[in-house]
Description:
The protein is globular and about 50 Å long. The protein has one domain (29-152): Rossmann fold (3-Layer(aba) Sandwich). A five-stranded parallel sheet has the order 2-1-3-4-5, sandwiched between helices. The chain is built from five helices and five strands; from the N terminus they run H-E-H-E-H-E-H-E-E-H. The longest helix has 16 residues, at 46-61. It is of the alpha/beta class.
Amino acid sequence: MTGAAVAGSLLASDDKPGPPDARARQYRNIDACLLTGPQGVAEGTLGASVWAGMQDASSATHARVNFVPVTGEQTQANATPFVNGLVQRSCDVVVAAGKAPVAAAAAAAKGHPKVRFVLVDGQANGGNVTAVESGDGLRADVARAVNRGVNTAV
């Protein structure tokens, strides 16, 4: 077959999409977002254990996961715009790890009842808030909490 014939047969194909790549994960239209301190998810940090639990939850639920570190001053006031940004990006589940992110997320939870919040070392102060404690079981606890949040997301 000549080059022109091959090109002609390719151009004449019906524009039907082929089957999805068998290796590609098909995600649901649900997002779980992690808000951390400035270290993000670096190895050896609290954020790393939480991120591992979120990845486990993503594997089980096919929810998309991402993280955002709070930069600058580590205060509730500075972390609040970061939480608001996650809510505006339509995160269905917001996980917060670190003192400032947790304080900001706890305050935001009251105004966003459809968003599920998971607070690491925080307090569950509403029906849409789950608290998990840091320690040996943190990864599994985060995975369970995110699974529940994803499965109850509207």
